[in-house]
Amino acid sequence: MLSSNTNLAAGPYDSIMGLTNPGPGTGGLRPRAHMDHGLPVLSLNGNWRFNYSQSLAAAPVGIEAETFDDGAWDTLPVPSSWNFHGHGAPAYTNVQFPFPLDPPHVPDANPVGDHRFVFDAGQEFLQGAVLRFDGLDNAGTVWLNGQLLGTTRGSKLAHEFEVTGIVRAVANVLVVRVAQFSASSFLEDQDAWWLPGIFRDVSLLAQPQASFRDVCVHAGYTVGGSGTLRVEMDPPLPDVVAAMAGLGFSEVLEFAETDHDEHGGETGVSATFDVGQVEPWSAEVPTLYELTLSTPLQTVRLLVGFRTITVEDAQIKLNGTPLLFRGVNRHEHNPDLGRAVPREQMRRELCLMKAHNINAIRTSHYPPHPVLLDLADELGFYVIDECDYETHGFEDGAWAGNPSQEPQYREALLDRMVRTVERDKNHPSVIMWSLGNEAGKGENLRAMAQWTKERDPERLVHYEGDWACPYVDVYSRMYATTAEVELIGRQEEAPLPDPAQDEHRRNLPFILCEYVHAMGNGPGGLQEYQDLFDAHPRLQGGFVWEWIEHGIRQHTPDGEAFFAYGGDFGEQVHDGNFVIDGMVSADLEPRPGLLDYKKVVEPLGLAVSADWCELALYNKYDFLDTAHLAWTWAVAGPEGKVAGGTLEVPVTAAGARAVVELSAEITRELAPERVLTISAVLAHEAPWAPAGHEIAWTQQGIPAAPQPQVHTTSGAAEAVVEDGELRFGPATFSLSTGELSAFKFVPVNGPRLTLWRAPTDNDNGKDHALPGSPRTADTWEAAGLPLLQGRLQSMTYDGGELAVRVRYGVPVARQHVDVEYVWRTDGTLLELSVQVTPSEGWGQSWPRVGFDFELPGGFSQAAWTGYGPGQKYPDTGMAAQRGWFSASMEELQVPYVRPQENGARAGVSKLVLSTEPAGAQSVTFQSEDFAFTLQPFSRQVLTNANHTPDLVADGISHLTLDAAVQGIGTASCGPGVLPRYQLAPGPLTFTVVLG
């Protein structure tokens, strides 16, 4: 007979797995540092047996038994995200949870992956061993040889289990059941794909009884230039020899102090030693010394960096010197493997960052793979190491039930913070611990901060979500406007209600832990932020959101590759392409925004005088002088490079300025249509770039040639009407539209006024500076800009000029734009003067004032004078140089994952379009200052496309000459276009000469 309290729906694994338990995992060992313990390690990575079930109820029973038959199961590589191997599907959300907000409960439709692996263990593991998982998403239940070891919580955190006496020499059966969701999923709403699986390494570690299990090294730097060393050891053992051969240091450690923790652990603390004069560690000079800690049984080797972190004068200081962060936020992603990122990719990522002048990483929003921090120590980065915690979805509902304030989650949150700090405590690159991201406010955060400060008072504590900053060491914000950032830099921000709290915050250093959202075309406004960072010592830089796009590589039926985003896998709840917001593509191709960022944050301020006689140099490095750099100069003209050489620049100390007299060899090259470029490059190979890699550059000179003059004389060219067309010098016009139909026997359609651009991701965003304001692209669409159509009003010829008047309007609306096109010719050249006169009612902005032309698709080669080689918009393109450039139509495109406006070349004075081979046929456009785009598909196709395969060439070269362009901004998540870069509707004139 059933008891009245029996839950008939309960399954056999419910209590074992504990998926609704809001606490931490069970059965695990207390956390420790991730390092080479000097003892044998057996990797358990490889091909595991795997079974996928759509729910726990559908999962097989008895999998933990050694005799369970898994012969019919699939094979899955570990580490992996199982969605990338044909099991289930990825899902992306930014803020919203993909399941009901009903903590600690998760839906019944909760995918389960069962993993089994058989391995042998050598004798060295039979005297004591630990089983370690470095990352398992989301909730794991672990058995070894039929014995339950425990459960894991905290997907990106290490979990270790004692297996001494359980592991055996032959045929060990390791079983792991992974549930995609659990109560801990409410703590991991981290603006990324939800990707279940054992995605980091699995290892068996020898841990004999007489060995030590953990070490914490405190390596400081004094004002006198010496290093200090203190060692914590768990457990404290006798006769431990600490040695640093590079410093001639060797001591037998005595552990005078002993701490006991609540888990029965015992940690000894050594005296503090002065190891003598050292080269301090910094991101610019990442000097590491090998420390060995030896016993008769084991020798641990650690790479130690000596540095001291303080907050003084509202500034973060490293070894007494203020820092400026040129940072990025980094998620872990691979387009073909998901969260299982290969080690070689991590090194490639960090080398790419260093090559683009990036010096800091925020590990959004969880601790990274441990190898990344090894690389950060070696290559030189300042790291904000973030706890595996975000609850952004609770914001819906005014943060009701938010785990940050719920007592039932306190133990789990403290456990996550402890695991973060203990795992990564020996890395000199880690200078701040972050409590998490976008998790509201609450006493649990205060408890996490308090524990962290007590455990590691030598580093700073960061958290952005509570702007009052009651328990942190840094005032951190996201996406604040430049106006507000300037007030903060002046320490003139709006006061807090509590005077004591206000004084505390006002004297904290300030960083932007996220800014200039790098989604699609953009970000705009980088330079304005950097100018503020340079001007106000309290402003210590920021971290761009974000480093890498999270595209997942897919293929069309005919094999064309593209990157998928939210919604492409049938998700009912998703946040679209908001996951495509990086400075590099998913396969690490730099986006234009990264090139701009490199230029904006370059660690040298360079300027050449107008007479080419002097180079002004400002060394913006915090620690480095310029001895590691070589200097080159080059002068270019329309014909290419005309002169060049090396430059002698005196070694300039960090923070110092110098003026270098340029040689007569350089100054004598000053002439019209000449541009001087001076570059600072690596003098020698670095671990992250070859010798000759460019660090910074500056230019002086004007590439623009004098504009051609079209002189009309009597009889030079007369307008002739014939066969329904008008011939005027080298041009033919349609009498029905007033547009060109041919120029110099080349079919040409246009010009045609356009006010529309395919909306960028920033155009589609909501300006954070104007809460409640509509999306800019919506206002443009509501104004009918993509439907602009012209009506020929008149076409007259008088005194050698052909005047064409067209009124442009949009369906339904009354507003219009009157455009007068006036054509003149000398029989060879064709001059067009345009007067644009809009009526009232067009709203606050237009994306562009441009003129469309259509040429045969063979006109696919462009050569121009102006800015290049990359794109440039009014508030972007800082990486673009002045000069003479050429590119194919294909090379002019930027293949953004969600197609949008791209590829404009700006500051152009001359454009030559030609067929292949180059110059076989050509058309030239010359004007004082214009931008152009050239694309093999129409703007409508670009507007309607969702992925790059949607961009199908139509055999036409679509050319747009822009007289004016709206900036880009960062409204995809942040402020919109700054006023100075907005394009307000108004009268405009534009002149261009065709030749």
For the sheet with most strands, the description reads: 16 strands, antiparallel
In DSSP terms (H or I, runs of 4 or more residues), the helix count works out at: 12
Quickly give the structural class.
Answer: mainly beta
Shape: globular
- Helix proportion: 10-25%
Distance between the termini: 97 Å
**What's the gyration radius in Å?**
32 Å
Strand content: 35-45%
Please report the total strand number as a whole number. 59
Q: Low-confidence parts lasting 5 or more residues at pLDDT below 50?
A: none
Tell me, rounded to a whole number, the average pLDDT. 96
Q: What's the helix and strand layout?
A:
Elements: H1 14-17, E1 41-43, E2 46-53, E3 74-78, E4 91-93, E5 112-119, E6 129-133, E7 139-144, E8 147-152, E9 159-162, E10 172-179, E11 188-189, E12 192-194, E13 202-206, E14 214-221, E15 226-234, E16 240-244, E17 249-253, E18 255-260, E19 266-270, E20 273-277, E21 289-294, E22 299-304, E23 309-312, E24 315-318, E25 321-322, E26 325-329, H2 343-355, E27 360-362, H3 370-379, E28 382-386, E29 390-391, H4 410-424, E30 430-434, H5 443-455, E31 460-462, E32 475-478, H6 482-489, H7 499-506, E33 510-515, H8 526-535, E34 539-544, E35 552-555, E36 561-564, H9 592-600, E37 604-608, E38 614-619, E39 629-637, E40 640-646, E41 657-661, H10 664-667, E42 674-682, E43 694-702, E44 719-722, E45 725-728, E46 731-734, E47 740-743, E48 746-754, H11 776-782, E49 789-798, E50 801-809, E51 816-825, E52 830-838, E53 848-856, E54 861-868, E55 881-888, E56 905-914, E57 922-935, H12 939-944, E58 956-965, E59 988-994
Parallel strand pairs: 11-29, 26-27, 26-34, 27-28, 28-30, 30-31, 32-33, 33-34
Antiparallel strand pairs: 1-13, 2-3, 2-5, 4-12, 5-10, 6-9, 6-13, 7-8, 7-10, 14-15, 15-19, 15-20, 16-17, 16-21, 18-19, 21-22, 23-24, 24-25, 35-36, 37-38, 38-41, 39-40, 39-42, 42-43, 44-45, 45-46, 46-47, 47-48, 48-53, 49-50, 50-51, 51-52, 52-59, 53-58, 54-55, 54-56, 56-57, 57-58, 57-59
Helix pairs in contact: 2-3, 4-5, 6-8
